[in-house]
């Protein structure tokens, strides 16, 4: 009896310690998630005074919605454009910043700087850069006789403009993780490779890169989720235009919920996005993880 | 086979002199040990030989050729690092073959060398494991395996045993020594442990603050330390020392112990004195190895001049030997006796010593003042028996 009671006491104590964060998690995470799931099976737009259950109608509609498909493809291209490039760039920057003998601190700060600037401010800076006719980029393009390009107003340019900006913003952040990863690799390994006469490329390919794989894995997951999370710049720069050419899934959810006031559809879209992210993370974690060496 | 020659090699960091004009000629097939306390420049010297550190001044010759500017891979050297430097993501096999793959040795040759090394080291069953799954001793063997397959005539080792426990360390000592002899390679070995230096080396170089203190065969260094530092660095426990003054009054010459309240006088005629050119009144340091101080039977006629009546301060009975501590002046001395001696603190014992075991050092420079001529012969005789 006494033993059971002691066990109880320990358990109660543990739960009490967990309680504060548990309350907030339940209130602000689990409960809204649950509500979103329920709402996604309801019709809840301006035309229905009370939300009512409509089964999987929202999801059916979604599949027939051209904008949804446009937004989803946009987002996949956006991810494809930003993730590998920013990760590769971050790795290159980290290798350089780690090697630099002089001005190490300056180089790191310079690379990291874009990360510290709020996205809204970044968007404003780039808005100026991309402005047609008198923007900074137009001035440069003028020298090549192409000063009349409209970066944000042209359907075929706008996505590239966004991708470029986001890479600029994110690479410095990922570099920090790579720098930490590089610091964890023992100097002896490089010296041993030097004794064997391995070239810089061989050392990178056979030693540095494999040992940085845990970092690469982590950073690519972050980069991928970021590519779905990022929405601030659209609000400032394009509002998803022109003609949804730069619209991304999260911004579309926002529009559906708070411009078109279709809560049910917005919930359904949210569920789709969450499932998509989970699926990709699962592939990365359970598929690639086995091939990675962890210390 | 190649011979390594260091010609007045120095290393400067900014303004700090880390290694100062170290010279040595290391013969082919020799086991050469660099030994000294931490920060003495032994590892830096080794890294300069390897090519991992630039040589600030002096010349390094391998096989008669100057190699100062040759990159590490061009020096025909393999190296075993302190933490083994095994690639954690590669299997034992890939770790061993890494260097051969880099140098594009043919696949057949790789397999042959791998099998040979694995058999030699007894790691054939571990080839598909990762370093994480190996014990310290096994990792050490893999690191050795890398050196073996490279077939370089020179091998450098930087404190390779410091990460192992005492028992394994003793085992690996003999194993490395055996391996070196079997392969006939030239070994340059860095350690801070004088036991390793004594037991493994053909010759050893004692370093301190970047300066060479003494180079020689381990026994010669032990028996005839060039200075006080070497004397106190070698041996466990190290040599006992005390301040003294040289007295030479006609017929008798010897030392007066200055730390001793009764200012005991020990006559030391043999080999010392006029021949060594020590003047009367010169401050000296008297040194005696712990094993040179032996207990005298209570009944035996004690020669006052070659014995000390001391009061025991502490006793360590190690089973096969006993270490007895006593105070001489304000210095704590240790005597090492074979067997088990049930002494107790406060006991009065008489310890005797032979004249030829006494060392005298200049109290200023620490240099060994005299080495008796007859001693070396005696030592060699005993070795032969």
Provide a descriptive summary of the structure in words.
The complex is a heterodimer of chains A (295) and B (385). Chain A has 295 residues and is mainly α. The model of chain A has no long low-confidence stretch (mean pLDDT 86). Chain A has a single domain, classed as MetI-like (MetI-like fold), CATH 1.10.3720.10. Chain A has helices spanning 2-39, 57-64, 66-99, 104-116, 119-130, 136-143, 155-183, 187-196, 200-229, 232-237, 249-258, 263-288, and strands at residues 42-43, 52-53. Chain A is built from twelve helices and two strands; from the N terminus they run αββααααααααααα. In chain A, a hairpin with an 8-residue loop joins strand 1 and strand 2 (52-53). A two-stranded antiparallel ribbon of chain A has the order 1-2. Helices cover 76% and strands 1% of the residues of chain A. Chain B has nine helices and 20 strands. Chain B is α+β, with helices and mostly antiparallel strands and 385 residues long. Mean pLDDT of chain B is 85; it is low at 372-385. Chain B folds into two domains: 4-226, 3-Layer(aba) Sandwich (Rossmann fold); 233-384, OB fold (Dihydrolipoamide Acetyltransferase, E2P). In chain B, a hairpin with a 2-residue loop joins strand 4 and strand 5. The longest helix of chain B is centred in the middle third of the chain and has 18 residues, at 166-183. Chain B has a six-stranded mixed sheet, with helices on both faces. In chain B, 26% of the residues lie in helices and 32% in strands. The A-B interface holds A 186, 188-189, 191-198, 202, 206-207, 210-211, 293, 295 and B 50-52, 71-74, 77-79, 81-85, 87-89, 98-99, 102-103, 130, 132, 146, 150.
